[in-house]
Amino acid sequence: MAAITNVLLAVIEWIYTIVHNHGWSIVIFTILIRLVLVPLDVQSRKGMRKMAKIQPQINALQKKYANDKAKLQQKQSELMRKEHYSPLSGCLPMLIQMPILFAMFGAMRNVANERVVEQVFTFLQGETPIYESWLWVKNIFMADSLFASIAPDPNTIQAITSDVWQNAYASLSQGQIGMILENIQATVPTFAGVLDFSSGESLKAVLPDILTAMRAMPTYVAQIQPMPGWANINFFLFSVTIYQIFNGLLILPVMAGASQLLMTKINPQMSGQPQTQAAGASGAQSPGMGNFMKYFFPLFSVYICLTSNAGFALYWVTSNLVATGMTFLINQYFDRKEQRASGVIHQEGTIK
Questions:
Q1: Cβ distance 114 to 166 under 8 Å?
Q2: Is position 309 within any domain?
Q3: How far is CA 83 from the centre of its chain?
């Protein structure tokens, strides 16, 4: 997985050298990935349509051999071999896309962590970072949310590993390091005067001093102020804060859920329907499970995009929208192909 993450990260950074914005780099990268997957999408859609055609025969077999599961499995396998259909044909694009999804999450997390540490060191020098924005998102490396500040919050900072801190610290000049150490010392009298990021333990030892110093920086404090009366509001099982300088408008998380729901309607494989159709007479739980997955993925998408940086949320939304458009076009292609084969449509579009 690390190798895939590194490859994806290299491609994104290469696109970034051309467009000079990580948001648009992610959009372009996602479109390229979806175009590469078009042949698999076509094959998947072809298999699913074939499954729909043989479904009446499968239903007849299920009714005929309802009390003989072994015979039912045998007859279904024979039918699928005869029709050259594989149940995996509808799942193949998803099986390939899942590693890309996880690798993309890792790639965007790596990029975001590097930029967040750079922003922390900028604050510790008493300055305000220049954030990389994208449309309505003020800082592409924080979540697109009213509940996320434009500046990195302590939870985000504490989740970053020591190797990222070490690499960012090594890129600083001696003058910048001296300013950072001086500002920490002025705020934390017990500070030892050395920042060591060589291991997780050493990072754990210096991180409280870094956070204490940041909270004393007026530039940082100004960017993490909650709206009056909107700090730590209990909302069902969560506690939320709306910030004066919030990072986004919740558009990407909402779009993620809506686009995922649209995908499950246009592409039944997203809700597990093709698998349940061919599963045989295994009980009445299959439709219920299909409906559960149909609504689980949109809600899961919203949650992931709310808790991830806007860069990854942008990838998720763009991927869903492009995939939905591709599915619509592929369906149109097969519809027209089948109509021509049956002699329904002539070249001029007239009907016999």
A1: no
A2: yes
A3: 36
317 within a domain of the structure (yes/no): yes
Q: Report the chain's mean pLDDT, rounded to a whole number.
A: 82
Q: Positive or negative, the Cα torsion across 259, 250, 96, 33?
A: positive
Residue 351 belongs to a domain: no
Residue 240 in tokens: 């939320």
Q: Which residues pair with 15 in a beta bridge?
A: none
pLDDT tens digits along 199-236: 999 999 999 999 999 998 999 999 999 988 888 787 76
The number of distinct structural domains making up the chain is 1
What are the residues whose beta carbons fall under 8 Å from the beta carbon of 320, sequence distance 6 or more? 256, 259, 260, 262, 263, 301
**Domain range for 136:** 2-338
pLDDT tens digit sequence for 31-68: 998 888 888 778 777 777 777 777 788 888 888 887 77
Residue 197 contacts residue 206 (beta carbons within 8 Å): yes
Q: Count CA within 13 A, CB hemisphere, residue 33.
A: 28
Question: In 20-91, where does DSSP find H-type helix?
Answer: 22-36, 38-64, 69-82
Q: Is the pLDDT of residue 89 over 80?
A: no
Query: What's the rounded Cα separation, in Å, for the pair 140 and 318?
Result: 15
Q: Does the pTM exceed 0.90? A: no
In a domain, 350, yes or no: no
- Which residues are CB-neighbours of 314 under 8 A, at least 6 positions away? 23, 26, 27, 30, 134, 140, 252
Residue given tokens 């084969």 in the structure block: 341
